[in-house]
Specification:
- This protein has a three-stranded mixed sheet with strand order 2-1-3, covered by helices on one side.
- The chain has about 90 residues and is α+β, with helices and mostly antiparallel strands.
Amino acid sequence: NGAAQAGIAQNTADYLLKNGFNVVSVGNAERYNYDTTIIYDYTGRYYTTRWLSEKFNLRPQSIVSLRDPNSNVDVRIVVGGDFTLP
């Protein structure tokens, strides 16, 4: 949650779980003033990040590739002020 919207992180996690994703962590971002949602791709999950951007009605530019083979997650979503669940 980077948007200070109460419950949005958990609601997003619930949505992802219902759609077959493995959610390993839910919480608040380091700050609450993200205007836009960002999808961080740590392991090259192009189809996953593309699906997420389409489902959440985000522009492809919202996907940031941060290749890190040592990351404990494949993808991280920081929910911003523009975010709405489908």
